């Protein structure tokens, strides 16, 4: 793609109470981010040779919080199941504190090897990286600009891929809320990137 923007969904009701997973709606601050996103983006769109704005497509997951975050963007949208957040299985809906208390062994195992740790009946980062392969192939093939409105673990995997980060660093890459990440391909095939915070 000519240019790629990555953003997490705006703050969700689950983010507010620090619960993982689920399919909650945006919290008020997340709704503010959704409303600001078009302006954050539109000023950064490259122009074609005849000074037209280049075409943009917006990819979301199938979860409410990404669809709600994308809803004010005036571009065609595509929903990918493969962009859904890491499945936390039996831990879905819990806080990290709940997990540490209820399942200290699971909590310790994840701290020890966050890349390979698989939630019971859920996924690992390695699983997420694997299921994202078709999305990444399409991102590389796409001629237009792409905005991906995703989730923390999924965007760590995508950012790690495009920035050629070591696998082991992917589960802790910095992908903050309310921040647009801009990726610009360089002629040599590597990427330049910027973090653009909510003004
Ligand atoms: O807390 C938000 C969230 O997207 C959760 O739904 C998800 O389980 C988590 O982040 C992934 O981040 P980490 O791998 O650091 O737990």
Automatic annotation (TrEMBL):
Top-rank lineage group of the source organism? Eukaryota
Q: Any stretches that span the bilayer, and where are they?
A: none
Q: What is this protein called?
A: 6-phosphofructo-2-kinase domain-containing protein
Read off the lineage from the record.
Eukaryota, Viridiplantae, Chlorophyta, core chlorophytes, Chlorophyceae
């Amino acid at each position: 793609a000519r240019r790629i923007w990555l953003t997490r969904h705006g703050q969700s009701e689950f983010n507010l109470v620090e619960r993982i997973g689920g399919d909650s709606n945006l919290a008020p601050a997340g709704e503010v981010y959704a409303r600001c996103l078009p302006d954050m983006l539109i000023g950064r769109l490259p122009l074609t040779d005849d000074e037209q704005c280049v075409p943009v497509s917006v990819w979301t997951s199938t979860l409410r919080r990404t669809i709600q975050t994308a809803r004010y963007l005036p571009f065609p949208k595509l929903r990918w199941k493969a962009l859904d957040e890491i499945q936390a299985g039996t831990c879905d809906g819990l806080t990290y504190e709940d997990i540490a208390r209820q399942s200290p062994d699971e909590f310790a195992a994840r701290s020890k090897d966050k890349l390979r740790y698989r939630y019971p009946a859920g996924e690992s980062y390695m699983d997420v990286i694997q299921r994202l392969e078709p999305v990444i192939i399409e991102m590389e093939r796409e001629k237009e600009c792409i905005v991906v409105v995703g989730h923390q673990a999924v965007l760590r995997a995508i950012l790690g891929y495009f920035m050629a980060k070591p696998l082991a660093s992917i589960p802790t890459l910095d992908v903050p809320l309310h921040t647009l990440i801009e990726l610009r391909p360089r002629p040599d095939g590597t990427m330049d990137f910027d973090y653009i915070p909510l003004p």
